[in-house]
Amino acid sequence: GSRNLQQGQAEEKRIKKFTNSVMFDCGYWPDKSGFDPSDETSMYTAGQNVIFATGVFGVLLNYVIKFCSSDDLKQESLMRLVCNALVRVVRNNLKIKEAVFLKFSDLLEAKLAVSSVAHLLTEVLTDNITACRQLPVAVVRRIFRLAMRDDNPEYTEYITTLVAWMKVQKFPSLLLKNHQ
After folding, report:
1. What is the number of helices (H) and of strands (E) in the chain?
2. Partner of 46 at 20 to 30 A CA spacing, among 85, 88, 118, 180?
């Protein structure tokens, strides 16, 4: 159960089944994109809210925070599964994005499943004006430095995180205005 996950002792098969059910609750099926996540009455949003309200979201996020900065390679595949499920839970849901944003700096410490954690952070910033404006310049610089690391190709996923931040900031249009 959740205690095994928090202790890093969960069976991958059980967690895969669990994360697949989380993704199903959020309207994801492999053969189609799912329900419209912008429709607050859809099963997609209802599933997200149930996952958040029942504490399942908290268990998953706490697991990622606890183990993403560890050197425990046994957690790598579980970390990817859990991050993938969290991306679905976070997508287009500002309330849940806020909850992950509060742990943004902790998640930047990831050593395991770096690209999956970066994908989660990208989802938090996507179309999230409040979070993008609250992101301190020092954190943006840290993301940039992570994206430029050449010791692990997974860090390049942080480029996508920066792009999500720039889109909300209207960064490209500001650059164009300054160079005209």
Report:
1. 12, 0
2. 118
Task: Return the axis-axis angle of helices 158-169 and 137-147, rounded to nearest 10°.
Answer: 140
Output the pLDDT for position 120. Answer: 98
- Identify the band that residue 180 occupies on the pLDDT scale cut at 50, 70 and 90: very low
Does 64 score more than 90 pLDDT?
A: yes
Task: State the Cα torsion 56-60-61-66 to the nearest 10°.
Answer: 140
Separation of CA 70 from chain center: 18
The residue whose two tokens read 């002792």 is 9
At residue 51, the pLDDT reads 86
Check if the beta carbon of residue 116 is closer than 8 Å to that of residue 152: no
CB 143 within 8 A of CB 162: yes
Amino acid code (one letter) for 128? N
- List, for residues 139-176, the tens digit of each pLDDT value: 999 999 999 999 999 999 999 999 999 988 775 544 44
